[in-house]
Amino acid sequence: MENVAPQTILTCTQCGGELYPDEGQMFLTCPYCSSTVYLDKSQVVFHWYLAPTLDEQAAKGALSRWMAGNQTVKDLDQKARITGSEFVYFPMWYFKRKRGEIEDILLQLAAATSVSELTNMRIPAGDLRKYDPALDAQAVAPSVPLETALEWLRGRQIEAREMAEKALVHLPIYTFKYQYQGQIYTALV
Q: Which of 53, 95, 98, 132 is the most exposed place for a label (fewest CB within 10 A)?
């Protein structure tokens, strides 16, 4: 299993010093020997996170609006009872694929979950932030190695060589448990 570092670290090819690339950088200057190092983003795995845009109360409000909407059981918001909530940063493998002029983003789960719909999310690249190890206490540790995620893509006829960029992204997710007609359900916001 491949270990995922909290931050992407490269080694200077001249002196062996540690280099810390930022998104979009193609050339790094070594702070130790001043050598310029070319960064092939298709070979680097960046580590990012998305900052939450909702607090727990706002997330609960979004859940209530969904429960009251037309896509659920009638009056679910009135008949269901929220029994618990949890906030985590959930890991996803993020692949930027380029095919000629077309660029798209592919997501794969980086930890076990029964909610496979997470791979259908849209993550705006401009919202990605460099992962902060201070988030570790709330972050789910990745348990799906990069090679496994790439193999899943190969099963969909998508080759690793098409990947212009690879990253591990931690998404802010509120997990709510609610009870309806004696059954416990899970909703993610």
A: 53
